[in-house]
Amino acid sequence: MSKNFEMLRRAGKENALFGRPCDDVLSHDDGYRGLASRYPIRPAANDHVGSSHGTQAQEEAVRLVQRVFLFPNSHAPRTVVFSSIQGNGSTEICSRAGEALAAQGAGSVCLIDANLRAPSLHQLLGVAESPGLVDATVEIGPIKDFTVRIGGGDLWLLPSGSSAAAAQGLFASDRWRLRVDQLKEQFDYVLIDAPPLSSNADAVILGQMADGVILVVEANSTRRETARIAKETFEGARVKLLGAILNNRTFPIPEALYRKL
Questions:
Q1: 121 near 148, Cβ under 8 Å?
Q2: H or E element, residue 240
Q3: Under a CB-based contact definition with an 8 Å cutoff, are residues 110 and 186 in contact?
Q4: Is the pTM of this model over 0.70?
Q5: Going by C-beta distance under 8 Å and a sequence separation of 6 or more, which residues neighbour residue 124?
């Protein structure tokens, strides 16, 4: 089953997401139909190559990276944190965005698995968990030596690394900040999968080192008040919120009808 999601742009859209002080959950009916992503960015395992479903999945990937990264000016973000409010919903979206951005030929892309307590980007991309982020922070050597090239193209991954779960306070260290600067120099785009905001302050710390954060909220699960508090948390830390993604959106009426609304 596809994990539908949609990007909620800052201009007018996030008011509907964050602006109402109520406790009901975010749902499919919150006024975002025009930006709905109806297909997964990476075709599902049962999609046939060349199928219309797979083609539309690729199109949705392009739309996402164009909305966030490919602005026709110098102000487009190049280092972006993906974080959910709860759960690990940001991991797959971060991975898909990285794959799509690399495929656009806009430059080299490095994904960073900074969700140290529950790393999974390496599993999605089929590579080893270490060496990686933790190793790069405690050891010496070029930062690129700790990354893994994916598929021989312009996509790279910095996995979580060895003993990731025990790396407390790592992101506040000067050594990690130095490594982030090196990654920015080595790659055109850096996409960071951060832990959920509900688990610790890592997402906020990482956001302060980036150009901004994309917040992932779960349809029919995340409450608007919780989303509003998350937004205020980032803003209070002077972290730019680039937008939000409504994940796992469902279609209570036939999907084809939404295209006519």
A1: no
A2: none
A3: yes
A4: yes
A5: 91, 92, 95
Q: What is the pLDDT of residues 208-246, one digit of tens each?
A: 999 999 998 877 677 788 788 889 999 999 999 998 887
Sheet containing 36-37: order of strands? 36-37, 5-8, 241-247, 212-218, 79-84, 189-193, 109-113, 155-158, 148-150
- Beta strand 109-113 with 148-150 is unpaired
Distance separating alpha carbons of residues 120 and 84, to the nearest angstrom: 14
What is the separation, in whole angstroms, between the first and last Cα of the chain? 23
What is the enclosing helix (H) or strand (E) of 36? strand 36-37
Domain range enclosing 227: 5-258
57-75 pLDDT, tens per residue?
Answer: 466 667 778 888 887 766 7
The CATH number given to whatever domain includes residue 128 is 3.40.50.300
